[in-house]
User: What shape does this take?
Amino acid sequence: MQNNLETPALLLDEARMQRNIARMQNRMTQLGVAFRPHVKTSKCLEVVRRQLAAGARGITVSTLKEAEEFFRAGVDDILYAVAIVPNKLDHALRLIRAGLRLTLLVESVAMAGQVARHGAEHGVCYDVLIEIDTDGHRSGIKPADPALLHIAAALQGGARLKGVMTHAGASYDLNTPEALAAMAEQERARCVAAADKLRAAGHACAVVSVGSTPTALNARQLEGVTEVRAGVYVFFDMVMADVGVCTADEVAISVLCTVIGHQPDKGWVITDGGWMAMSRDLGHQSHGYGLVCNADGNAIPGLEFGKANQEHGVLQWTGEGDISHLFPVGSSLRILPNHACATGAQHGQYHVIPEQGGAWQVWPRFSGW
Ligand SMILES: Cc1ncc(COP(=O)(O)O)c(C=O)c1O
Assistant: This one.
């Protein structure tokens, strides 16, 4: 392991990432659906290039900044999968006028009307999906809600209904293959039901877009679905390990940190990787601030990352005796994150351990809006 990096630093194991990309893409191909990865996880062109090379068709973004960055790099089919609001419409318009095939999302009659008016005023016709709530975990319209047809009716003039979209985020609370398969089926069935209702009322509804990493990997069939979106699978993390869709040794990113001191009487090993390097995301609260591993990325059972200050990580030894000598000041540790998207967002670059070996590379990562 190359070890002259200033720490804390975000490491990316390219071989693990490539296996994660291949696993998801193969599954989507078996299920017979297009795959549109959510790139908010990496916010990194090098990562997204590899997802597209593996067979992804278009991308999903969570900010217009992501849309802008990836469009500039040549990706021209982008779904902005957060409900649009008026203060973002001018930005969306600029991107569309520059040639981006951008799809917007609405979940209210009021915004459907505003999007349509904005399009008509500026001589464009926005492609729009309606967000469907299939699990009660966040936003969207329930398939049976009469508002569904009112939203569709409002999408005329400067906007056209392209389809429906849902994200079963409630899958993060599950942890058995049976429960995950049932959630995947619920996500599919309810989103398809919304599409059928729209079609029965005379609306075209070409796109039926579903997805989260747990449901994508546990769906048994996806009849009526045209595309799947998933994001965190590209790196995986300890939350996904708790859900049961990966193991710790499939997690592709880690935070490299250095031991800066000890409190032997308390069994503490103190590092320069605090919450600023890990994020405050405690996931399912089963791994503290992350899973502690040695410099080669193998978990160290008994050393727990329960306490963090901004730039200090306090690792607690829960076994017998004093272990300070095993982790001398200056030695390296790696922490697997609870939530890859949140930990990634704390860093400006990935230090990439290349699949083919050789010198580590630096891949930039952007942030902000
Ligand atoms: C709208 C939407 N689609 C897809 C995803 C991807 O989910 P996951 O990261 O579980 O793959 C997310 C994640 O938050 C999302 O908000």
Notes: Residues 181 and 286 are 23 Å apart (CA to CA). Residues 38, 60, 81, 167, 211-213, 229-233 surround pyridoxal-5'-phosphate (CB under 6 Å). The chain has a mean pLDDT of 97. The first helix runs from residue 14 to 31.
